[in-house]
Amino acid sequence: MSIVTLDKKTILVTGAAGFIGSNLVKRIYQEAPSATVIGIDNMNAYYDVALKEFRLNELAKYPTFTFVKGNIADKALITELFEKYKPSVVVNLAAQAGVRYSITNPDAYVESNLVGFFNILEACRHCESLEHLVYASSSSVYGSNKKVPYSTDDKVDNPVSLYAATKKSNELMAHAYSKLYNIPSTGLRFFTVYGPAGRPDMAYFGFTNKLVKGETIKIFNYGNCKRDFTYVDDIVEGVVRVMKKAPDKKNGEDGLPIPPYAVYNIGNQNPENLLDFVQILSEELVRAKVLPEDYDFEAHKELVPMQPGDVPVTYADTSALERDFGYKPSTSLRTGLRKFAEWYAEFYK
Question: In the Enzyme Commission scheme, what number(s) does this protein have (predicted)?
Fold first, then answer.
């Protein structure tokens, strides 16, 4: 692996007003205060824009952070950004997220996840300063694979949602560009990321919103789903470590580049049953005084069948991440949900 220093470098983060993106920008400045970070985000209304603005406001305190409102599917804009700022490291987190939304609004996924990512790859191809492209993939690529834990060596050719298909496509596109143009690229398959100021379409956040309003929460697959919940700080720690080590450029026997390409899982390696998860969440919401102590959770729970596009279990094998970066996510679900509940109490009070 090639060492990439972040000090005094220009780093482009797409999706910078997003949940992972905004936390990553903060973490980059902890790691390398002398870095310059360019953030781009289209600030779309897929979920409450006030949350994105809250995250952006927290980034305004960094004097070398520049925010650009725009869409990665706008090729002219992306070309212009790369020519102007000449980034050394690019972290592509901008994407249309969510499995269920991809069933009702597929166009958004093709635009952002395919066209947008293609524009990033094309710009990287022409960017002489580029040392490493890191991009978000997803645990969704594993589909309904029966073998667990999920390993990056597993075959992932059976997506069960368009969202998953676009993320697998990103890995394939990155591989082709790594091979053709010798671009060091690393894909990261994130497993169910959660935490303060997260995405309201995620179960923990959506459940909380509904419980606060006295509505009933639907627990899919009758509660028999397991998710490898990964706390956001663990995710961004992993991303920063990966940014600093790029796959080596080297040529094969034919004199052509062996693609400097890698893919890793980032997950907690500890799947939690959804019913246990709801139990812990409810306890932490009471503790943070988001809900009253006498709240009747049983009356607000409904067990329902599996949803289209969903999978029964996600479970990360993170041994490759441990081997190459000496890192393994470790925040417990209770610790992470406590921090979320405390943030929620403060933000919505």
Answer: 4.2.1.46
Peptide bond connecting 329 to the previous residue in cis, omega within 30 degrees of 0: no
Are 230 and 333 within 8 A, CB to CB? no
| Number of domains the chain contains | 1
pLDDT score, position 119: 98
Q: Which of 111, 196, 189 is nearest to 154 (CA)?
A: 189
Domain presence at residue 64 = yes
Q: Give the pLDDT confidence score for residue 307 in this predicted structure.
A: 79
Q: How far apart are CA 25 and CA 8, in angstroms?
A: 14
Q: Model pTM? A: 0.94
Rounded to the nearest angstrom, the gap between the alpha carbon of residue 174 and the centroid of all alpha carbons in its chain is 17
Q: Which residues form the domain of 173?
A: 2-191+232-267+315-329
Distance CA 189, CA 27 (A): 19
Could you say which of 29, 163, 194, 261 is catalytic? 163
Q: Name the DSSP class of 153.
A: T
Q: Cα–Cα distance between 128 and 307 in angstroms, integer?
A: 45
270: left (phi over 0), alpha (psi -120 to 50) or beta: beta
Give the count of beta carbons closer than 10 Å to the beta carbon of residue 51.
19
Closest CA to 37 of 47, 46, 27: 27
We report the CATH number of the domain holding residue 64 as: 3.40.50.720
68's tokens: 């650009």
Residue 83, burial from CB neighbour count under 10 angstroms (0-12, 13-18, 19+): exposed
The two tokens of residue 43 are 């600030």
Which residues of the chain carry a pLDDT beneath 50?
none
- Which alpha helices (DSSP H) does the chain contain, by range? 19-31, 49-59, 75-85, 101-104, 106-109, 117-125, 162-181, 203-212, 232-243, 274-287, 319-325, 333-347
Residue 314's pLDDT is 85
Q: Identify whether 29 is a catalytic site residue.
A: no
pLDDT at 55: 96
Q: Is the dihedral of CA 49, 53, 56, 58 positive or negative?
A: negative
* Backbone φ, ψ for residue 317 (5° rounding): -90, 110
The type of residue at 55 is R
